[in-house]
Recover the amino acids of this structure.
């Protein structure tokens, strides 16, 4: 357990921003547990990192499945005894799914982006508490910001993703609650916005690379004791809720 300077779990880590976060943390010397719904895909992604001499391990993780989450918590407990950082990256956006009703889009999105985040967080809190300096990073979006959406000059004012935005606003609310609830255990909880990133999830329409998007998450996953908690930030600084 003490062989590794830090242990991090990244959900949705086999591609896109999650993979970039996992890679960046591994390059910083962290042992990264790469959560993937499809373990084979996770193992392929992890193998690319271990081939570079980095410490990475694929783990099966479906945040919508109670058994999957519980099994992973037991594995981490047995093999490492603690967890230092949790990056809640797994998420979906279904606003443009033509075969779903608005209600179905909302139900499925909340199941992953919000309920899944709660399920994984709750399972990992005991392990993060054992760290003594646990860090939780919730991947959010400035589309969730009521302050920015009220501004006519905001660059994304014309973006219409009501379901996704609502789910990330809920994630931000959880961040505030968890930051207060877990402070006594030495756990810091923050929301980060990676920016509009070119990944499969955006049909590669974003103007940022996954590596650029990952920087802020990597930094907040490794906050020192003086670092903030209960904040919503991007690489430029604090964002309005």
């Amino acid at each position: 357990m003490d062989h590794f300077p830090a242990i991090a779990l990244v959900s949705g880590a086999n591609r896109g921003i999650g993979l970039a976060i996992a890679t960046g943390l591994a390059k910083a010397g962290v042992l990264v547990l790469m959560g993937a719904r499809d373990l084979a895909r996770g193992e392929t992604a992890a193998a690319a990192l271990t081939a570079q001499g980095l410490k990475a391990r694929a783990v099966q993780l479906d945040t919508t499945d109670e058994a999957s989450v519980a099994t992973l918590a037991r594995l981490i407990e047995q093999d490492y005894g603690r967890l230092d950082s949790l990056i809640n990256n797994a998420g979906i956006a279904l606003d443009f799914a033509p075969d779903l009703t608005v209600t179905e889009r909302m139900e499925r999105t909340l199941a992953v982006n919000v309920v899944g985040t709660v399920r994984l967080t709750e399972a990992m809190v005991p392990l993060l508490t054992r760290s003594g300096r646990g860090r939780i990073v919730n991947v959010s979006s400035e589309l969730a910001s009521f302050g920015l959406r009220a501004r006519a000059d905001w660059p994304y004012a014309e973006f219409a993703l009501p379901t996704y935005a609502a789910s990330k606003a809920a994630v931000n609310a959880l961040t505030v609650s968890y930051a207060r609830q877990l402070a006594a255990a030495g756990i810091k909880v923050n929301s980060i916005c990676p920016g509009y990133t070119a990944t499969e999830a955006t049909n590669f329409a974003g103007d940022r690379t996954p590596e650029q998007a990952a920087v802020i998450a990597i930094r907040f996953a490794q906050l020192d004791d003086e670092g903030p908690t209960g904040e919503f930030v991007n690489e430029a600084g604090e964002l309005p809720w």
User: Anything to note?
Assistant: The helical segments are 16-27, 39-50, 66-79, 102-131, 146-149, 162-181, 210-221.
